[in-house]
Amino acid sequence: MNKDNVLQKIVAPPIAEQQPQTLELHGDRRVDNYFWMRDSSNPKVISHLEAENAYTEAIMEHTEALQFRLYNEMLARIKETDLSVPYRKDEYYYYSRTEEGKAYQIYCRKQGSLDAPEEILLDENELAAGCDFFELGVFAVSPNHQILAYSVDTSGSEQYTLYFLDLTTHQLYPETIPDTYFSFAWANDNKTGFYTKINAANRPYQLLRHTLGTPPAEDVLIYEEQDDIYHLYVGKTRSHAYILMVLQSSITTEVHYLDANNPQSNFQLIHPRKTGIEYNVNHHSDYFYIVTNDEATNFKLVKTPVASPGKENWQTVIAHQEDVMLSGVSLFVNHLVIYERKGGLETARVQNLPTGKEHNITFPEPTYSFFEGNNPEFNTKTLRFHYTSLITPQSVFDYDMETSQMELKKQTEVLGGYDKTQYQSEWLMATAPDGTQIPISIVYKQGLKKDGKNPLLLTGYGAYGYSYPASFSSTQLSLLDRGVIFAIAHIRGGEEMGRKWYEQGKFLQKKNTFTDFIACAEYLVTEKWTASDRLAIMGGSAGGLLMGAVINLRPDLFKVVVAHVPFVDVVTTILDTSLPLSAQEWEEWGNPNDKVYYEYMKSYSPYDNVEAKDYPDLLITAGLNDSRVKYWEPAKWTAKLRQMKTDNNILLLKTNMDAGHSGASGRYESLRELAFEYAFILDRLGLGQM
């Protein structure tokens, strides 16, 4: 009997009580023995989660020294007292900074020049005092820079309370507004703000107008969205000319606009919602510039007069391309920045609006990620963007759109003498069962031998059109330096290879996501990057669904699995429209009230397909206050796996009792969580002594 079996006999895992609940639809009966776990007011539920946590702690006790080592080495690479690159807005320079020993950001500014005295606007550490969880939502300075609107969540449930701070006196205004979402826009009068409220299901569904210094009870309801599949957001154009109200489902958009100089007037419609038509809006002079998929799968750019923005007046600026996806645009007084994806990689080009001339922004590495930074000023020739790769730390550049000169403002410092030449990244291709080529980003320590003996951690997501970024992580060095290869499977369901890549991994083609991931794993084994008994996988949320699906399909292929807040009870959750995201999910996974979708979703739902067979070592995480994937999904899945699996491998559930979907909020607690997960992976791969 090995040490794992001995330990598990000494420390017995909690066995959840079974209370059969029959769920019936379309003549099909499903029996859920753990449906009762949904009731968090039931003391048995909390007791069970606490018992699982105690069991997890006991099983992982022998890794405490490893956890301590990992935490300290990851912390040692971080410059604890650090400063973001200031960005200019009018006469102010805004930035945030951190201090050693403090878990949260401090937001500051300087007036006139970077040599001016510092003014602290908001210290998250002070706001978070006494809170087990803290997250900042809205952070919006008024146009005259005298008032700060900010919101906070102290539970992890994504229910924010909105505050207003006078930046002259540093006194709070008397009003506080609870149950808000993290979108807000100031009108140009510096006293009117627009914010979104959430309903009982945490869906942002109302837009309200607030006048500074007045009771929230007097706020004017501008709009209420009745359709459960739409979320409501509010924002402002970079030109400062218009407030935008955006109504958005997974596949459909409707945008209304309001003159920011006349906040008491009415919002006007740009184009009414039409199922499947998405669009987002930018403004320049007399035109709205609109990126849309209307008759353009990979999106196109049109412009339309502000005075009459309806579709009948849309003029094509950038036509649809079959092999290039238009990801978005950014507008400045004299420049249009065009973001695209081609061959799986992000690209950008800049157009001079007066002359029409264009040039490309190019990057040298085989796999990388970049995104636009904070660019609040409209009348500027400088574009700020962030660049990173699997071996290049986060780098902030200022790019001169006139001269094409690129200035590195800051590269995140990795303490301890990081040398990127000691690591290698590559862009690989695996073949899916239908012949599709699936990209893999991979990074490893130089000197690696492809002999099938290397430990490897493979991750992926593959949902909602989210393209998994190939970005640097200093914490990941704790794996790479122990010989672990890290790889990202850019599977269908994301948008790495264009919009069709996403569409081929959703609805009734969702299983492509899972078989793509398996194909990537098999490729890495076949090509001797690793072996199945050296292969760990990790994914969160919809990526946790991925983990559950692939271990149901191919449990023999993987040694270790970490599933963060996994969305695993697909059918039951999406049928329950009282939950925050369920109705909107119909446009991603399908509506199970339709028998065709019900049967298809049930055929891959991880919870519904647990079988009596051997499973890999498993660490499953949850957040008690998670509003996106309710805690009971990972808890029920764990209970069912423990009941049915036929192996003696480790199965752990770790629930953060004070947090939500994203786990711990402070940077030190986040590192401890990560050290715990890395320790689990290394220990199960036999690398616990390294």
Helix content: 10-25%
Number of strands: 39
Summarize the biggest pleated sheet: 8 strands, antiparallel
Note the total helix count.
Answer: 13
Cα separation of the termini = 24 Å
Structural class: alpha+beta
What does this molecule look like?
The protein is an alpha+beta fold and 690 residues long. Helices cover 19% and strands 34% of the residues. It is built from 13 helices and 39 strands. The longest helix is centred in the C-terminal third of the chain and has 18 residues, at 667-684. The radius of gyration is 25 Å and the shape is globular. The model has no long low-confidence stretch (mean pLDDT 96). One of its GO terms (molecular function) is serine-type endopeptidase activity. Belongs to the peptidase S9A family. InterPro entries: AB_hydrolase_fold, Pept_S9A_N, Peptidase_S9_cat, Peptidase_S9A, Serine_Peptidase_S9A. Keywords: Hydrolase, Protease, Serine protease.
What's the SSE blueprint?
Elements (H helix, E strand, L loop, with lengths): L2 H8 L10 E5 L2 E5 L10 H17 L4 H13 L5 E2 L3 E3 L2 E7 L7 E6 L7 E5 H4 L7 E7 L5 E7 L6 E7 L4 E2 L4 E10 L5 E7 L5 E8 L8 E5 L6 E6 L5 E7 L4 E7 L8 E4 L7 E6 L2 E6 L7 E6 L9 E4 L5 E8 L3 E8 L2 E8 L5 E4 L6 E5 L9 E8 L5 E6 L5 E6 L11 E9 L5 E9 L10 E5 L16 H4 L4 E5 L9 H5 L7 H16 L8 E6 L1 H12 L6 E5 L5 H6 L6 H8 L5 H10 L12 E7 L8 H13 L6 E6 L10 H18 L6
Parallel strand pairs: 34-35, 34-36, 36-37, 37-38, 38-39
Antiparallel strand pairs: 1-2, 3-5, 4-5, 5-6, 6-7, 8-9, 9-10, 10-11, 10-12, 12-13, 13-14, 14-15, 16-17, 17-18, 18-19, 20-21, 21-22, 22-23, 24-25, 25-26, 26-27, 28-29, 29-30, 30-31, 32-33, 33-35
